[in-house]
Write a structure and sequence with these properties.
single chain; mainly alpha
């Protein structure tokens, strides 16, 4: 994780140095960005695996939803920092964030504890409760002690199993991995298109008849990420309550389609309407994206078929987020070509992508609805509480 952060920070600084070195070669900037992307791809599987080590399945969606808000906060801070120093030269918009990443890497190296085992604690969900009341007789105490010893032996066996990494193809064949991976491909395509193109869209679309400046457009675009913070938390909370990740995701995706249509049609009427519709769009678009990259990935990487293998969690997270990253790279690229035909075409592409994202989760959502009707999800929820 620290290796990836250091590499990302250094390469971001190198990208910004092109401003002072008067580098005008497209190949230079493309090469730096590609290598920087490789370093950045190290981060997410590592951090999800670490957080998964520290929290059990109970309220995982809410916990990871709150934790995942750091991505939107980072986007907000990045936009504000980059916009605030843009007047001093565009190079500062890369050098300053790159330096902050390097400093953060040092902090992570010094203070991050990867697993509860490193501090002598049991992993969540595997704690052994020893409860002996004064009224218990000796025979009951012996039976409980034997049962606890058996659990200890099982935990040792599970720990041994967790030392072996799962294969890449084997991880792809795990139930639910492929549908969620392809769903994230389209969800991340939409989210990152907004991330990169929303400031440009705001600059070239008059709001209440007024064209916004570069700085104002950059700051205003953070409203989308603010909505994303609430979206990630609410999606995690709802999915914990109903015990249905796919159903929660597909509901958010379905509601985001009319939200984007409303934003395109009425977003230019006034600044207030633009902010409200942008906030709602960010909430609905980023909700499933945040849920899939955190709680869903942790669920799939710790399911019973692989006995909660810690390395399987990192592999599954890498597959899901890696597939999504392809969409994240493709979305802004397509938007650049399609925008020449008008912004309506770009929004049509986003709506089309959301439709396909939801389509990949239809079968899983149907299965969750069937379980809810039969009472299986409610029973499991009651047993955990």
């Amino acid at each position: 994780l620290v290796f990836g952060m250091m590499g990302s920070g250094i390469l971001t600084v190198v990208f910004g140095l092109g401003y002072w070195l008067n580098v005008h070669l497209v190949g230079f900037y493309m090469s730096v960005q590609i290598v920087c992307g490789l370093f950045q791809s190290i981060g997410w599987p590592c951090v999800v695996s670490v957080v998964g080590n520290w929290c059990g399945k109970e309220k995982r969606g809410l916990i990871m939803g709150v934790w995942n808000s750091h991505t939107s906060v980072g986007n907000i801070l990045g936009s504000v920092i980059a916009s605030s120093v843009l007047d001093f030269g565009w190079g500062w918009s890369f050098v300053l964030p790159g330096g902050l990443v390097i400093v953060s890497g040092v902090v992570v190296f010094m203070f991050l504890v990867v697993s509860p085992h490193d501090l002598g604690f049991e992993e969540p969900g595997k704690e052994i409760e020893i409860e002996m009341s004064l009224g218990e007789n000796v025979e009951e105490s012996l039976r409980k002690r034997e049962a606890e010893d058996a659990v200890l032996l099982e935990n040792v066996d599970e720990l041994d199993d967790s030392l072996f990494a799962i294969g890449f193809l084997e991880a792809w064949r795990l139930p639910g991995v492929a549908p969620y991976a392809f769903c994230l491909f389209f969800s991340k395509l939409v989210a990152y298109t907004f991330l990169y193109w929303l400031p440009y869209y705001l600059r070239h679309t008059a709001v209440a008849g007024v064209n916004l400046s570069h700085k104002t457009a950059g700051i205003l675009s953070t409203v989308f990420d603010i909505g994303g913070v609430l979206g990630g938390i609410s999606a995690g909370f709802i999915s914990d309550k109903i015990k249905a990740r796919a159903l929660t995701s597909i509901t958010f995706l379905a509601l985001s389609i009319p939200a984007l249509i409303m934003y395109r049609i009425y977003g230019s009427v006034s600044m207030f309407i633009n902010i409200i519709l942008m906030f709602i769009s960010g909430l609905l678009v980023n909700g499933p994206y945040a849920l899939i990259t955190t709680a869903v990935a942790a669920d799939l990487g710790t399911q019973d078929s692989i006995k909660g293998n810690g390395r399987a969690l990192a592999t599954v997270t890498a597959i899901i987020d890696g597939t999504g990253s392809v969409g994240a790279a493709l979305g802004p690229l397509l938007a650049g070509y399609i925008s020449s035909r008008g912004w309506n075409s770009v929004f049509f592409m986003l709506i089309f992508s959301i439709f396909f994202a939801g389509l990949f989760l239809v079968r899983l959502a149907k299965a969750e609805i069937s379980k809810m009707r039969s009472g299986e999800l409610i029973a499991s929820s009651d047993s955990q509480s």
